[in-house]
UniProtKB/TrEMBL annotation:
InterPro entries: Ergot_Alk_Oxidoreductase, NAD(P)-bd_dom, NAD(P)-bd_dom_sf, NmrA-like. It comes from Streptomyces virginiae. It comes from the Bacteria. This is NAD(P)H-binding protein. Residues 146-268 form the NmrA-like domain. Residues 1-27 are annotated as: Disordered. Residues 29-125 form the NAD(P)-binding domain.
Length: 301
C-alpha cells in the first residue's frame, strides 16, 4: 500500500531548532510517502528528527542516518539519542516481524520509550505480515500506537503501480470490483503520526485512518478524468488474474495477500470512514478530489 513519493514542503510556521542534546524521533523510511511527511510535521513543530533511509539521504531540517532493516550493524547509530520511533515496515516482505522485532528489542534497550507503527486497515492485530508486529508492540513499549490507514490516495498520484499504469495507459487494474474504500491522504496519516509521537500521552491503541468518503475505483477513475482532463478507466480483474500479475513483481505469497486484499474490498471490508484524523489533528481529512488537484496537473479552463 505504501509507495515512495516526493517530500511535501513543511508548514511555514517558524519553529525553534532542536539541539543535538534534545531526544530525537527516529523516522524510518524518512524519504518515503508517509515518512517524508511525518518528518516535515515533526521538524515544523521543533522536534529533533533522525531521518532514517538506506542511503542516509538529506532531508530538510533533519539529521540523516543510515537505516536498512536487513543490516543490523546500522541499528545502534540509528537509535542513539532517540526516545521515539516511527516504524515503516520493509516493503514487500511477507514476514516483517523477523527483522523488525530484533530491532525493536534493541531500540527499547537503547532508551526508546514510544513506538508508532504504520500498518494497514486491512491487517488486524495478530494478522499476517505486520499484524504480528502489531501484536508484539504493546509488550515492548509502554507508549505506543499502531496506525491502520486505509489505502493511500497517493497510490494514484505518486510512485505506485496504479499511478504508473494511469500515467502509461490511463488504466487502473484491480480485483476490487465495485467495492468502496475510505482512501486516505498520506499527509493526514503523517499529521496523525506526528501527534501520536509527540503528544503528552500516547494513544496506546490502534487507529483506523480514512478519508472523508468511501469511493470505488470506478469513482477514482472518474475523478481523475475530471481533474486531469485525460480519460482514466478502471478495469475489473479476477482475483487470480490480479494475483498472477502482482507475482511478476513481488514474491508469490505477498502477491496472493495483496490480491486477497482486493477481493476483501470487493466484499465490502473497506467500505467505512472514521473520525480519527479529525479527532487527533483537529481538522477534517482531505477529500480525494482536493488531493488530486494538489498533486496532479489540472486541465486548463
Amino acid at each position: 500500500m505504501t509507495a515512495t513519493a516526493r517530500t511535501r514542503t513543511a508548514p511555514t510556521t517558524p519553529a525553534t531548532p532542536a539541539t543535538p542534546t534534545t531526544p530525537a524521533t527516529l523516522v524510518i523510511g524518512a524519504t518515503g510517502t508517509t515518512g517524508s511527511r511525518t518528518t516535515a510535521h515533526l521538524v515544523a513543530a521543533g522536534r529533533r528528527v533522525k531521518a532514517g533511509s538506506r542511503r542516509a539521504a538529506p532531508v530538510p531540517g533533519a539529521e540523516p542516518v543510515r537505516f536498512d532493516w536487513y543490516d543490523p550493524t546500522c541499528f545502534g547509530d540509528a537509535v542513539a539519542g532517540a526516545d521515539s520511533v516511527y516504524l515503516v515496515p520493509p516493503v514487500g516482505d511477507p514476514d516483517p516481524a523477523a527483522v523488525m522485532l530484533p530491532f525493536l528489542e534493541r531500540a527499547r534497550a537503547a532508551g526508546v520509550r514510544r513506538a508508532v507503527l504504520l500498518s494497514s486497515s486491512a491487517i488486524p492485530e495478530g494478522g499476517p505480515a505486520v499484524g504480528q508486529v502489531h501484536r508484539a508492540l504493546p509488550g515492548l513499549f509502554d507508549e505506543w500506537a499502531v496506525l491502520r490507514p486505509s489505502w493511500f490516495m497517493q497510490n494514484f498520484t505518486g510512485a505506485h503501480a496504479h499511478a504508473d499504469s494511469i500515467r502509461a495507459d490511463g488504466v487502473i487494474l484491480t480485483a476490487a470490483g465495485t467495492g468502496r474504500v475510505g482512501f486516505v491522504d498520506a499527509d493526514d496519516i503523517a499529521a496523525v503520526a506526528a501527534r501520536a509521537l509527540t503528544d503528552d500521552r500516547a494513544p496506546d491503541t490502534d487507529l483506523v485512518l480514512t478519508g472523508p468518503e468511501a469511493l470505488s475505483h470506478d469513482d477514482i477513475a472518474a475523478l481523475l478524468t475530471e481533474v486531469t482532463g485525460r480519460q482514466v478507466v478502471h478495469h475489473h480483474l479476477t482475483y487470480e488474474a490480479m494475483r498472477d500479475r502482482l507475482a511478476a513483481a513481488v514474491p508469490p505469497a505477498f502477491a496472493a495477500m495483496l490480491a486477497g486484499m482486493d477481493r476483501s474490498i470487493a466484499e465490502g471490508a473497506e467500505d467505512r470512514t472514521t473520525d480519527t484524523v479529525h479527532r487527533l489533528t483537529g481538522r477534517p481529512p482531505h477529500a480525494f478530489r482536493a488531493v488530486a488537484v494538489r498533486e496532479l496537473a489540472v486541465r486548463p479552463a
